[in-house]
Amino acid sequence: MKIVIRTVVFHFVCILIFALFYYYFKDHFQRKVDEEFNVFDYLLLSTTIQAGVGISDIYPISFYGKIIMIIQQLLMIMTHVFTLYIFNL
Fold first, then answer.
1. Which residues neighbour 71 within 8 Å (Cβ) at sequence distance 6 or greater?
2. Out of 30, 33, 58, 79, which residue is the most buried by the measure of CB atoms under 10 Å away?
3. Which pLDDT value is given to residue 87?
4. Burial status of residue 75 (CB atoms within 10 A of its CB: 0-12, 13-18, 19 or more)
5. String of b and e for 3-15 (b: at least 16 CB within 10 Å)?
6. Where are the domains of the chain?
């Protein structure tokens, strides 16, 4: 049970950290609709990427934006693979 709680907490922390990264690098992202960004938009983007859905109205327009999204996606994939491996021991 401790592994499940640690995994859930890890995902929430990753969502918050990457939402802050997206907010800090907001010049490297663009919206499909011309509206101002707010913190909840980046939280939504981070949550959809961490969940594996990846659909949002914000998308990267520069190299750095793409790298940040790739890092979060790889981290999410590695976490799921290791979690499945641990549960199947």
1. none
2. 58
3. 67
4. middle
5. eeeebeeebeebb
6. 2-87
* Cβ atoms 24, 59 nearer than 8 A: no
Cα–Cα distances in Å, from 41 out to 4, 19, 35?
27, 9, 11
Q: For 16-32, what is the mean pLDDT?
A: 89
List the structure tokens of 10: 């890890």
Q: What are phi and psi of 9, to 5 degrees?
A: -65, -40
Asked if residue 57 lies in contact with residue 33, where contact means CB atoms within 8 angstroms, the answer is yes
CATH class of the domain comprising 2-87: mainly alpha
Give the pLDDT of residue 16. Answer: 94
Q: Would you give the DSSP letter of residue 1?
A: -
